[in-house]
Amino acid sequence: xxxxxxxxxxxxxxxxxxxxxxxxxxxxxxxxxxxxxxxxxxxxxxxxxxxxxxxxxxxxxxxxxxxxxxxxxxxxxxxxxxxxxxxxxxxxxxxxxxxxxxxxxxxxxxxxxxxxxxxxxxxxxxxxxxxxxxxxxxxxxxxxxxxxxxxxxxxxxxxxxxxxxxxxxxxxxxxxxxxxxxxxxxxxxxxxxxxxxxxxxxxxxxxx
Length: 208
Fold this sequence. Notes:
Elements: E1 19-24, E2 27-31, E3 39-42, E4 50-53, E5 60-67, E6 73-75, E7 84-94, E8 99-103, E9 111-117, E10 123-124, E11 128-129, E12 132-134, E13 144-150, E14 161-169, E15 172-180, E16 189-193, E17 198-207
Antiparallel strand pairs: 1-2, 3-4, 5-17, 6-16, 7-13, 7-17, 8-12, 8-16, 9-10, 9-11, 9-15, 13-14, 14-15
């Protein structure tokens, strides 16, 4: 509708929050108010060129949690509906050996993990292993905290899954980074130890 003094009332807002917006050259239309929390975005396919949008849900969703059994835990049927996976293992102890993690039950030499220790100048280069070994997660006397991040875990269009692991114990901290050489989406995660008795709690999050 062409905007003139005579037609201006035809595009007047009808309710609180309504907006009068240009719909074409010398034309206008009323865009009704959105709902609480929505935000205004450009939308070339709508009559007004604008639309109200709702923020996507974000944050962290608990996918699994509990206490480790003496042999660890195997988390299966992990939902692929999130962007990243974040695993926290708290108060972890192992009677002997170090904590270990496998993905998708894969026992092949498809794991690569480098490590650097805070306070040390040495870096341990990535080597091919049959699981992720978590240095410093090997003490029954000192409680260990573990955080593991798997980026873009449900993407099957790549050949490597990027992985970060942080391990802290008392005043020691080691940062691990590497990859899982597989194009499959991550659907299971196994925390275990070699010939050892494990204890601690875990929480697995899906993150958007």
